Amino acid sequence: MRDPIRHAKALAFAVVVFLITSFALTQANPQVFPFMPYVWPYIAGRSLTYTGTELESAPAPQFALQNQHGATVSLADQQGRVVLLTFLDPLCSDDCLLLTQEIAAAQQQLGADSDGLLVLAINVNPAEQTPDAMQTFLQSQGLEQNLSWHFLSGEWDAIAELVAGYYVSAGEPKPSKPGEVVHQNVVFLIDPRGELRVLITYPTPVGAALQDVIVERVRQLQ
């Protein structure tokens, strides 16, 4: 007969080992277990203040892609500004819309400081790498006149390589929504020197508004 006390102790030990290991891995590499920086305060009994995950400063993976107007946008040409990089599906009908509106709200909240912020969104839908699809999405969000927004597309092989370079999963079909793709909802902030500095996951923890986190971190990087 199984000893319930011994079983409970073994389970508790396994949980503790997992938490300690994941926390240690997060400290060594923030892209491993990215949820731990805002879960750990609960475990440690501290108050929760989520400001994203600080990344070890390193050059951001480079790319040159076409925006919604067919113009080439290169990350290398953006030095001197903070770049907000995210990944969107132009056919998405759920989280992409919420994420986009949070970013737009952050721009408004930044006020004059938003002049130093550029938003680059990578199109992760393999079947919708067209200017029309991206323009339609931006129009639906009221962003077609926002000159700081660039929805970027290209050959899918290049997009897939770029997505992998940022350790983001994307491109698989959504089982319940034909035409849409599954992808991680994340925001990267790249500093004016072209260094990858902050990872913000979405949805954010309860009580943390994405737009507020973006505003705080962008102002720190400017």
Descriptive account of the structure:
- 37% of the residues lie in helices and 23% in strands.
- The protein is an alpha+beta fold.
- The protein folds into two domains: 43 residues; 173 residues, Glutaredoxin.
- It starts with a helix and ends with a helix.
What is the CATH C level class of the largest domain, in words?
Alpha Beta
String of helices and strands: HHEEEEHEHEHEEEEH
* Total strands: 10
Q: Largest sheet at a glance?
A: 6 strands, mixed
What are the low-pLDDT stretches, counting only 5+ consecutive residues below 50? 23-35, 40-47
Beta content: 15-25%
For CATH, the homologous superfamily of the largest domain is named as Glutaredoxin
Helix residue percentage: 25-40%
* Cα-atom radius of gyration: 19 Å
Gap between N and C termini, in Å?
63 Å
Which descriptor suits the 3D outline?
Answer: globular
Structural class: alpha+beta
Trace the largest sheet across and list its strands: 1-10-9-4-5-6
According to CATH, what is the topology of the largest domain? Answer: Glutaredoxin
Number of DSSP helical runs: 6
Query: Which architecture of the largest domain per CATH?
Result: 3-Layer(aba) Sandwich
> What's the domain count?
2
Q: Roughly what is the average pLDDT, rounded to an integer?
A: 84
